[in-house]
Every structure is written in C-alpha cells, then in structure tokens.
Design brief:
It comes from Effrenium voratum. The chain is mostly beta strands. The protein is 5% helix and 42% strand. A five-stranded mixed sheet has the order 2-1-5-3-4, covered by helices on one side. Strands 10, 11, 12, 13 and 14 form a five-stranded antiparallel sheet that branches. The protein has a four-stranded antiparallel sheet with strand order 6-7-8-9, with no helix packed on it. Strand 11 (163-169) and strand 12 form a beta hairpin.
C-alpha cells in the first residue's frame, strides 16, 4: 500500500503524467499501470486520458532523461521500488520520415539548408562531388556543379527574389552564388585554397561572409555587388567577383572549425560565433577583429544554433549530447540533453517557438536526402 492509499500488485507500477504542452494537459494524479509498459504503451495511456480519437505519439522523460526501457526495467536498473511514484513528463515524438520523399543523389549528402524563411518549401543539398541540388518540396529543380572538390557545408540568406547561397569547399575555398527558384547566377570563388573548409556563414545584411575549417582560422570576406550576381535571362552572364584575400583572419581555435554564425543586429550586433573540435565556442568582435569571449564546452562541438528570441545557445557534440548555454553569463555549467542514441549529434537548429530546438544525430546512409539515418529529437528549453 502506497502513501496515497493505492495498492500496487506484482507487475504493476505507480506513475503520474505531466507536460508543458498546453494542448495536452492531463490530471496530475497517481495511476496504477502495468509495469511492463514502455514508450508505446504509455503513449496509449496518455491518449486515453486525453480522449484522442486520432492517437498522438509521445516520448517520456524521467528526471530529464528519455525513457528507453519498460517501467519495470527502469525501476530495476535504478533500484527503485514499484511503490514509488514515477514522475513521467511527456513530449511530442517525431513520426518516421515518409520514404516516398526520398531522393537518391549520386554522391554523399554533406548538408541541407533552407532557402526561404521557415517554413520553407525550397531547400538546397550539398554533395561531396562538388554539386548543389535545389529542391522545391520533394522535387529537384536544379543541379549545379560549384567545384571539382566536395562541398562540406552551406549557408543561405533569403532575399526578395530568392536567396544568396554560400558553400564551404574541401579545396579550401568558399563558393557563392545567387539562387532564384530553379535559376542560378555565376559562381564566385573566395579564398586561394589550402586546408579544407568545414563551415560557412552569411551576415544578416549579406555584406560579410565567413568560412572556417581545418586551418583552424576563421576567414571573413566582404561581399561585392558581383559576388551574388543575379541569374541572367540571356546566355551573356556577368562574371562573378572572385576574391583571393579575406578582409581578415581570426585566430584562436586549435582544432577544426565546425560551425559559424553571425549574430543578429538586434540580438548580438557586430559579432561572429564559432564552434570547434577544440571543445570551445568563441565570440568574435568583427569590428575589432578580435575574440571577446571563449566558452569551454567540455566536448568537441559538431554544430550550434542560436535561439532567435532569447540569449541562448545550443551546441551539439560528438557523443550525442546537446548542451544549452545562457550567453549573458560568464563560464558556467550547461544544461545537457541526450538524443538517446549512440554516436554523434550532427546538428542542431532553432524552431519557430522561442523555446523550441531540434537536434539530429545522423548515422550516414549514403545518398538519400532525408532525415532518418539516425535520430531527430525536439527539446524544450527551460
């Protein structure tokens, strides 16, 4: 008999459900459920409590960690009594990707970037054979070869008529061009080559470009009017403006630079953020070309994203963790989450909600343009 007066028999467990999702509130009362229930069975229980005719899939957390076993196995592993009330927080689970939208590319896909403000139906995928593929929904509209070497990463800036597109190349250069639907402008080359690039970024107003990679330096370039020359209606296309030398090089990282992001003017004016395998995130003053802040993040950084509404940063790491940072504070302990998989958390991106984050860990499947090679997990920032 528990303190609440409910009898718990063998093969049963005492749980309570809670959520921060306004549309899925349930009474926070203690319930006796079969102890062999896992995520799917618990999701059925919550749907019954909600009275949903169309079932909604949920994930469950115990003390901030995703439940990946049955209740009885969790209690056994953590040496807990079945008479102890297990507090379960439920969040929305992602559905499996639809295989009908899979596009088979001739080479490995290195990155995918939206070409419009979210929600976007236009996006571009870079490949390791040096080509970029532009999609509208599930239909490929353009395939253009940018370089003889592979493309490791990409960035895009939506414009009135299309978008500015920037790719980081394994030959140590950046390639820039303008995209308008299924039409592309001439390709501009920035840099002289050398160590492979692994990250690229565009400033909010499109006046600055940045690239970084195995040289450990962050190179910053000014854009010229011809850098993103518009697609010409005729065959006589204006030549793009190539730049050999950057405006300046930012030195400080000791390992490969894996992520770059220009701060928005209303949030982090005149700043550039960079992440690296040296287990740090640096903030650069692009007016003074100097580092103003250096956060040690304890793990190699594979990517990061900045919350568009709050002064928060999320970093993804090689061990499958995602860490959250308050960028207003000095060095401090982060709040960590887990994708619930073995392997790297390959990327993280902010959602439409101020508190929403999507992080993905990808086990490479090869040439498919899809999310599903690993795990994509939504987080709520608290």
């Amino acid at each position: 008999m528990t303190s609440s007066g409910k009898a718990v028999a063998t093969g049963e467990a005492l749980v309570s459900f809670a959520t921060k999702l306004p549309a899925f509130q349930v009474p926070e009362e203690e319930l006796v459920v079969p102890s062999n229930l896992g995520r799917y069975g618990l999701s059925e229980v919550v749907n019954r409590l909600l009275g949903k005719e169309q079932p909604v899939p949920f994930d469950f957390l115990v003390d901030g960690e995703f439940l990946r076993t049955s209740i009885d196995l969790y209690l056994e592993v953590h040496k807990l009594s079945s008479e102890k009330v297990l507090q379960l927080e439920f969040v929305l689970a992602l559905r499996e990707p639809e295989q009908s939208t899979v596009d088979e590319a001739p080479e490995w896909v290195s990155s995918v970037v939206a070409l419009e403000a979210c929600p976007s139906t236009w996006f571009a995928a870079t490949l390791y054979d040096g080509t970029v593929r532009v999609y509208e929904g599930s239909e490929m509209r353009l395939s253009s070869r940018l370089a003889d070497s592979g493309l490791a990463a990409a960035a895009a800036l939506p414009t009135a008529g299309g978008s500015h597109f920037l790719a980081a190349c394994l030959d140590g250069t950046l390639r820039a061009m303008s995209l308008e639907g299924a039409a592309s402008g001439p390709v501009a080359t920035l840099g002289t080559g050398g160590s492979a690039m692994q990250a690229a970024a565009l400033s909010e107003d499109g006046t600055l470009l940045a690239g970084g990679g195995w040289s450990t330096e962050v190179l910053v370039f000014n854009t010229e009017p011809e850098t993103f020359a518009q697609p010409a209606a005729s065959r006589k296309r204006k030549a793009a403006a190539n730049q050999a030398r950057p405006k300046f090089a930012l030195k400080g990282h000791s390992q490969v630079v894996t992520a770059l992001h220009f701060g928005k003017k209303e949030q982090f004016p005149y700043t550039l953020l960079s992440g690296s395998w040296d287990c740090s995130v640096r903030v650069w003053d692009i007016a003074a070309a100097s580092c103003v802040c250096n956060w040690g993040v304890a793990r190699a950084v594979t990517s990061f994203t900045v919350n568009p509404a709050m002064p928060q940063l999320a970093t993804s790491h090689e061990d499958g963790h995602v860490s959250f940072w308050d960028v207003r504070a000095p060095a401090h302990t982060s709040i960590a989450g887990d994708l619930g998989q073995r392997g790297a958390a390959a990327g993280a991106g902010a959602g439409d909600s101020p508190a929403a984050l999507l992080a993905g860990g990808v086990v490479p499947r090869g040439r498919r343009t899809e999310v599903g090679g690993g795990v994509a997990r939504p987080f709520e920032q608290r």
